[in-house]
Amino acid sequence: MKNGKYLVGVVGAGGIGRYHIEGWKKLNDVIVFGIADTNASVIETVSKKYEIPVAVRDYKNLIEIEEIDIIDVCTPNSFHYPVTIAALKSGKHVLCEKPLAIKSIHVEKMIQAAKENKRKLMAAQNNRFSYAGKMTKKIIDNGELGEIYFAQCYALRRRELPAADTFIKKELSGGGPMFDIGVHILDIAYWFMGCPKVHSVKGVMFTKLAKNKGITGAWGQWDTEKYEVEDFAAGFVLFKDGRALNLTCSFLSNLPSNWSAYLYGTKAGIIWPEMKLFSELNGMHKDSTLTPIVQENEPSHHIEIKEFLECVKTGKEVLVKPEESLEVIKILEAMYISHEKKREVLF
Questions:
Q1: What does the pLDDT look like over 236-277, one tens digit per residue?
Q2: Same domain, 145 and 260
Q3: 1 occurs within a structural domain
Q4: 239 and which of 56, 142, 159, 196 could share a cystine (Cβ 3.0–4.6 Å)?
């Protein structure tokens, strides 16, 4: 700390990193003290724009600064593990962008390092912090939907494939839409269901459109020769208590974009995040759309940053428990194994 304020270092100052910086700078008891990025022009631009005193290309130099309390990891997926481990071992609390890591064994080591060094660790699964996320969870926990016995989850983009190498090369991303956006919808649906123990996973992957030079990208054109990950994925998760979850993801679907979770309950069903509620009353369909009386305008990414800081300050448990993130990564990992082996993966 410095002058009673928490010092934050952000590793990865590109797109999502800048968004995180803006969230940290909203907090009166925080100083964004440093950034690290391998791109020299990025660190120069970002450090000047946000008036950040320390800007380095090697994240290890940032982590070595003793006064820094929190490291915010916004790097490509494959670098989440080494940066997080180094930060935890240096006594820093860590907020890490999703997915927490691309291998479950790495998440296990992260959890161990956090416990050994008595530091907070949380994956930035921002949907849990959105108004629709928090209210849906409250409705479920209050028993208003009954038992959620099945979830149908969609993370479908029609022509929105991020063109950078960090998304299309497997060594950097860990996977395609299943890892990039599937992790979001899987995490929140799994959380809505109470994070049950997994029995088995079946997954399939396709790369049917991304290699086609005739496909137009809304977010720019990617190098079709470099493309190494799936552009479509689907999977089925069976839980030990008999409940189940189905997941469908795509970057380039020839169907409309769809970002939603359909939660099937014994008393009522709900479509998230639209907050459309379906039930029965006296032999009649009862359908409604829930809307907040007081609108929440703050971005969910910034809410998660504020709440993570509160956990650091007070010692309370983080909302996205690392053990829950571990199970999510195990599920995603099993999806790829299932596809490769062409069989169901038992847990």
A1: 999 999 999 999 999 999 999 999 999 999 999 999 999 999
A2: yes
A3: no
A4: 196
| Residue 91 falls in which region: left (phi positive, over 0), alpha (psi -120 to 50) or beta | left
pTM greater than the 0.90 cutoff = yes
pLDDT tens-digit readout, 127-142: 999 999 999 999 999 9
Token representation of residue 105: 């064994």
Q: Domain count of the chain? A: 2
Q: DSSP states of 51-94 as a string?
A: T-SEEES-HHHHHT-TT--EEEE-S-GGGHHHHHHHHHHTT-EE
Domain with 51, as residue range(s), is 6-124
Residues 214 and 137 in one domain: yes
Domain-embedded: residue 305: no
The beta strands (E) that lie in the chain are given as 6-11, 30-36, 54-56, 70-73, 93-97, 121-124, 148-156, 198-206, 232-239, 244-250, 258-265, 269-272, 276-281, 284-289, 345-346
The CATH number of the domain holding residue 52 is: 3.40.50.720
Specify whether the CB–CB gap between 253 and 157 falls below 8 A. yes
